[in-house]
């Protein structure tokens, strides 16, 4: 595990400032929730940390690694993995194959090498065993040989987390993992995410609109508004913060 340190991060799209000198720290092994209204800059921050965007200014470090100095295709080797609002799975592959695809990013040669079948027999057996273990740990092993397209959405959400974990990340970015789930599925997913730091040794950065879920599993929360950090603290501190209440939580806080 490693601390995530964001310092003075800014991102501009033409004349629009999506992130405005934002700084925050997530300690190793924490779950940090990002909250804020639509347009607050949460996804932009995610995309800067995940190297989808190159920020206009600032720095992002994971432990002793300068993430912004890396090309985007090296981010997985640095220990960063993510899920997406829209599932980033291969519908026509099995659960096992989807998880193995996530694991390829952590080994030399990657997916291209596997397609060309260059000296990968032993490596592929190792990755297959790793994928089986992950499916078992996330209670998906009964679906190992089922096609992703044939399973319900809630099950696929868990599969995407398994795929992201397959690369052995130090930092896991979860982008609205509860979107589209029923209340009972949200409860099950919350329990899973809450267990990730201890079971898999990851630090978690979470964007999610379901406040009960964020408040229930986050060690700390960063509230954002118009690209700036509005507040940072424990769930209880954020729940009582007057600016957060006024701008986002409202009377429901």
Tell me roughly what share of residues is in helical segments.
25-40%
Based on CA atoms alone, the radius of gyration comes out at 18 Å
By secondary-structure content and strand pairing, the structural class works out as alpha/beta
Gap from first CA to last CA: 32 Å
Please give the domain count.
Answer: 1
Could you characterize the architecture of this molecule?
The chain has 253 residues and is α/β, with parallel strands linked by helices. 37% of the residues lie in helices and 23% in strands. It has one domain: P-loop containing nucleotide triphosphate hydrolases (Rossmann fold, 3-Layer(aba) Sandwich), CATH 3.40.50.300. The protein has nine helices and ten strands. The strands form two sheets. The protein has a six-stranded mixed β-sheet with strand order 6-7-8-3-9-10, with helices on both faces. It has a four-stranded antiparallel β-sheet with strand order 2-1-4-5, with helices on one face. Helix 6 links the parallel strand 7 and strand 8 (203-207). It is globular. The mean pLDDT is 91. Keywords: ATP-binding, Nucleotide-binding, Transport. InterPro entries: AAA+_ATPase (IPR003593), ABC_AA/LPS_Transport (IPR051120), ABC_transporter-like_ATP-bd (IPR003439), BCA_ABC_TP_C (IPR032823), P-loop_NTPase (IPR027417). Pfam families: ABC_tran, BCA_ABC_TP_C.
